[in-house]
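Late entry, evening session. Most of the bench is empty. Finally got around to the prediction I had been postponing all week. Sequence below, unchanged from the version circulated by S.P.
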Amino acid sequence: MSKVLKQKLAISFIGFILLLLWLETSKHWCFSLAIPAMFLGLISYNSYTYAKAKKICLGKCYFDENSWIYFFWTRKGVIFILSVFVGFVLTLSLVFASFQFTWIDKVIFFIDSFILVFLYSFLEKNKTFNFNVKVPIIKNITAWINSLVIVGILFTIALYQTPPEYLQIDFQSTLAFIDKERYSQCETIDMMAYVSSVVDTTKWWLLSKAEDMLDNEYLKKVLWFLRLLGNYMMIFAYSRFILELVDIFTKNATIKEIENEY
C-alpha cells in the first residue's frame, strides 16, 4: 500500500469522525452547526470544480469564445452560485437524514469512507480523460458509482425492515406519535430534527398506504426502491464531502502520482 493511499485512508477516516462529531455535539451546542457549514463548503467546492471543468469544455466545443453565450455559459460567478445551491441541497439532505441514523447507518458510512478512497484511487489510474479536467471528473464519477453501490446495500437491508409501530390509519394520528422530547439544547437544531422526523414519518405512512393498495409484490419492492432514492442524495453528498476532503489534503502527492503516469 502506497504512502499516498495511506494518507487518503487516514483523511477519509477523519471525515467520518467529523460526521460522528456532528451527531454527538448537535444534541448539546449550537456551535456544532460549524460542521454542516464545513460540509457545505467542501461539497459546494466539489460541485464548482466539476461544473467549471464541464462547462468550459462544452462551451469551447459548442460556442464561439467571443460570443455572449460562451461568456454567460462559462461565467465563474454563475457557476459559483449554481454550485452553492447544489451544495446547499446536498448538505441539507445529509444533515436532515443524519438525525435518523441508526448504528447500521453509521457502520455503512464507516465502511463507505474507505470504499470511496479505494474506488477513487482505482479510477485515478484511468487515462481516458484530459489531464487538465481529469480530477474533478473522476471525483464525480466516483461519487455516482459509490452512491449506486450503497443505495443497493440499503435497498437490500430495507427489504427486511418492518414499518414502525407508530403508524396509524390516518396521517394526523401518526404524526401525534412523533417523539416530543427535545433532540437538542439548540433551538435551531431541535427544529431541524423535528422536521426530519416529520419527513421520515410521512414517507413511512405514504409507503404503508401504497402497499395496502397493492397486491403485486414486485410493485411493492419498486416502492421501497423509490423511497431509497431520497437516500441517494444523502450518500452522494457524503461521497463528495469525503472526496473533496481527501483531495485537498493530498493534492500535491496525487498530482505527482498522476503526472508520473503521463
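Two things to note before I forget:
The mean pLDDT is 81.
The first helix runs from residue 3 to 25.
Will write this up properly tomorrow.
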